[in-house]
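Researcher: I need the complex structure. Ligand is EPU. Inputs:
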Amino acid sequence: MRNIIDKQLWQEIISAVSFSGEVTFMEPMKAHTYLQIGGPADVFACPQDTVSLENILAALNEERIPFVTVGGGTNILVKDGGIYGAVISLKNFRRSDIVKEEKDMLLLFAESGMPLQKLVSFSKERGYSGIEGLAGIPGFLGGAIAGNAGAFGYSIKNALVSVRMLNPDKGIYEMSPDNIGKLGLEYRASKLPEDTVVLSANMRFRKDIKEDVAKRTNSFLKRKRETQPLSEMSAGCVFKNPEGASAGRLIDEAGCKGMRIGNVEVSRMHANFFINKGDAKASDFLKLMDEVKKKVVKVFGAELEPEIRIMGRDVNR
Ligand code: EPU
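Model: Output:
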């Protein structure tokens, strides 16, 4: 395997196909994650359209170069050595359109780079019910689908009708209402293969009284602001809730609030959030996860599983 994908190699790979969009090399991932942690990606590409995305994935596949897709970078921890291969950003895919409107419902199409909060605001302003509980969750639609983002008993799964995807082997295909179950959307998880990119989705909303939707959305956001450190650098909840328990409460009651390694600290507001206090290292974040896990096992006998997606290489290559 090659060590690194540099500019020259990239040009050889991409020269045969048509590609429009921005490409940078050795791009620091800390600039693309909410945590603001992470070493450089060999190649960071933002295709402008679906054809460019298809072409780039096919070329990478042909050369057996791995890629990962990122959306808002909200739920990921990139290691300090950065990412081998290509990071594909879908930030240019943010079109949306009303597909169908009936008396009681609205069918909306949106591309995966659409910020989730734009969708939440749109529904709130028009009185479309279905995603009120997603208020305040950062990131893009694609990532929200891949991780089945949710809060307060709501999840993106409940609004989804169909999802269009792209896979280097299969090309573009759609999970329709009949087979959308195969996406395996469960609590903060999906069965989406690593090499499959979410392109867009159709979502169904129920028409409701505008003021009621706004009231619910605002109250969920208020609860979130009161209980979660939304303005600090974090990746959201670090661990999944074990069956019937709150990881945050377990971490808190195990005495971990304020625990710190390097510049990473367990939030004093909500213990399942780890905060980058400034220029933190991924290695310290991982060490803190380990320490917290050990404490929770010791006190409660509960094994915490990460909710965040950890990716990349360690520093010593
Ligand atoms: N609690 C503590 N100490 C803490 C944190 C929580 O005692 O440090 C207690 C709370 O007082 C409450 C209970 O634990 O009695 C549950 O807390 P909370 O309502 O904050 O819910 P959670 O289970 O900790 C989950 C999701 C959040 C989501 C909220 C609201 C997971 C891992 N966490 O948190 O999602 O916003 O419910 O629905 O599923 C995320 O996925 O990134 C995330 C933050």
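Model: Summary of the prediction. The pocket of EPU is lined by residues 151-152, 188, 227, 236-237, 240-241, 246-249, 252, 270-272, 307 (CB under 6 Å).
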